[in-house]
């Protein structure tokens, strides 16, 4: 038994099965991320006035990542074009670039995540807030026993709202040592911090999972499908095309995530 | 003068011959048990796998409901027969009942356990029962046969879809056995309740849902691609049996409506596991204490995301069932279905509209009059194509020489039962009436009329109808009719009284069956539940037991007929569609030679022919294929 139109186009629909399948899958992905973007809109419009963070992320790193993904979109297209003209060497080169660009993107993203996880907001007993990067904890640091000290590189503000908008104002940071006995509550900028970090980590995390999945698929085709290239180059080219369509979609999601999370 | 014939592009022998030679190189392995029944990529095996699993889950979900009905009729009394079993499975959630001397009387159902049963009954019936049976089981088995395809477009994806479904079912089932018990926030899992109940059952529920959503996503992609790409030559869109159209629209609904629930599930899982506040408002207090979560979230957001799936899901439950009914009615009235084109356009319109009616589940949430007005209009509008479909099916009976058999009985019963379910939904679509009826037993009666004597009857019809194709034997007609009449009577005895209870103001989801609001319990208070309404609880319980017993002939029939049922040929119902023009049971690859479709799907009683039906397809290469096989 043979399933028809796995490689060649069906004449009246003008498409082969897997390409139709991936477009359908991408339609559902649009709805998945669409749901999350709607959640973003509702959370942002429903936030208390002045409590939605702005400028918490480094625009330079976001721009770098945008460029990395845009380049990977170009190399993906070139890899497919190389397959179409049956140049396996060029295909190997361009998709090697794609994979390296994807890995660089993930490295930058992990650095950004790490940066948020070591960033603490500390509510003090006198009603002020210390906010900054963790420098060190003293050996006897213990929140429950209220012993020890913690040093952050940051600043102290009187109102939490002063922490929210960093688009134009660049805070002056200095080393501050805080006694644990003075701490009311201490929390890093993880997903639990507020609804902004929650949706930021969820959406970029899900996007990163898509990057990882796409990279694995592209690497599999790149490394293990040489035999198919020899026996059935058209089928191989289709695989490159279908995985490339997925990759372009993942890039496109980032094109929306970047302004929504970084620029506004 | 000499004519020259030039071929352009120059003829190049394609790889077809080479591929064929390559194929013959492989010996045909006799598949072992695992690859034949567990890891099969054959759409028919996968369809049967889905069918078997979903029937088991339907039985289990029904069992949960029986326990709940016992609790409603006899609050806090020891459960007969199954008390020890529940105590074994759910531990202290089923507390011991002792008499005054301290002797153990049995085990009862605690309010928490009742809530868990309620949540899981809904979840199991919808996501593990009706949807996999209506869409995945019948769709998988019948659609490729009907369109003349050798299999689904992506057979391995199809297998993965079933395995994801199976895993999802296991996770859901396992949640009963964990400490704290299964999810207890209703099948709708409203936040913040779903986050604040102290059990990991909700996390199990969410993981299970993600697996089930993955399963239906893979299935939906496969169905749409198959229907678009693998139609046999001549099978134009307007020659598709309407069942295929219904499945096609259903697949689009699953493809596009489920992902927002997946998004919502991820967010709720973050709320439960990582302490985020997507759905938790600022200052949320639980058990008198302000929670530690950051707040700032929106409980309404969950409801929007949930019902964006939840309402299209209703059409996932009903459209394939309507498709089954359509095929059976055309076959047993022996005449073309009335208004085929109206049916096609209506089902497309229903599919589209189903995406913009969701907030009629949310009139009580205070989302605002403007939004409510929009959703009232769309809700009234969607009833139009639904009524067109039902009307076409009714009119198809007109002037037919109707053949009565078990599938036809169930299909005929579907029409008025779905009609009752649909018409009682209209007051719920209008905000003014909904404010009074919302969250009462009226709602329960309404949607159960749509899904239980509606969808489920149609699916029973489908089982009786396609059983001969799957096994080569008919199910027993006498016991089929016993099954039908008993189910029909008891089904109505179960659900009809709930309309009365709901109109009198009995609220759903009360583990005591409303006894604390009854006239007997609080005499003199206004708007209490009168005694006759309270007594209905007992009658509904008795009818539910009767409904359970009515399924015994069906269960025995479905197994026994495999061996002792009447043997039949390939086309016992004398049907036109392609599924009846393959060998019985169809082999791997379905058709011995490629079918060529030459006419529409319902050419019954065309004058001037030997038989009263004209098969949809011809097999021009049948002789050639037979020759090639020898």
What would you say about this model in short?
The complex is a heterodimer of chains A (264) and B (630). Chain A has 264 residues and is an alpha+beta fold.
Structure, described:
- The complex is a heterodimer of chains A (264) and B (630).
- Chain A is an alpha+beta fold and 264 residues long.
- Chain A folds into 2 domains: 17-115 and 195-263, Up-down Bundle (Four Helix Bundle (Hemerythrin (Met), subunit A)), CATH 1.20.120.80; 119-188, SH3 type barrels, CATH 2.30.30.
- Chain A is built from 6 helices and 5 strands, in the order αααβββββααα.
- Chain A has a 5-stranded antiparallel beta sheet with strand order 4-3-2-1-5.
- Chain B is mostly helical and 630 residues long.
- Chain B has a domain at 427-573.
- Helices cover 61% and strands 2% of the residues of chain B.
- In chain B, the strands form 3 sheets. Chain B has a two-stranded antiparallel sheet with strand order 1-2. In chain B, strands 3-4 form a two-stranded antiparallel ribbon.
- The longest helix of chain B is centred in the N-terminal third of the chain and has 37 residues, at 111-147.
- Chain B is globular, with a radius of gyration of 27 Å.
- The chains are: A alpha+beta (264), B mainly alpha (630).
- At the A-B interface, helix 1 and helix 4 of A face helix 8, helix 9 and helix 10 of B.
